[in-house]
Design brief:
single chain, alpha+beta, 5-stranded antiparallel sheet, 16% helix
Length: 186
Amino acid sequence: ALLLAQQECEALIRMAQGKLRRSEVVDPRSGRLEISGVRRSEGAHFGYGENAVVARLEARVAALTGLPIVNGEPLQLLHYPAGGEYEPHHDYFDPAFEGSAVQLANGGQRVATVVMYLQEPEQGGDTYFPELELSVRPRRGSAVYFEYANASGALDTRCLHAGMPVLRGHKWIATKWLRQARYASP
């Protein structure tokens, strides 16, 4: 079964068009967002319940994961054109880096990720988990869900993943990062 209908995928892409900005990553030393060459995409954020499509999707993710909507960071849409990629990374905040404290103070650790595919590229763009030797091919309306922190906060490094380079076409995804506790938008 698909997580999103084709019409929902198309609506989210349309709504993101005027909001797109170069994607950023969290600097592990400072905890602040910055532009980095490891992530070549553009993105847009949607506030909680910003519109009916976003509200339905947030409710659907909460029902599937068992985590309340407020434990999720705001929905992020990402566009990867040809050449776009996100090199191998973890979505959790490594406690070994002092900058992680800034992020952990707001909702605790990230515990899981839902990557929803809104448009698949003609070639490339898989979500690849190198330590698991698992590659997920983007398919419109489908999603991949993975957990990497348990209730006590122990982290699983095997969730290292990458958005492989888009070779032809465009990849659009919606990402929902889930936290241990209530997340308050900064």
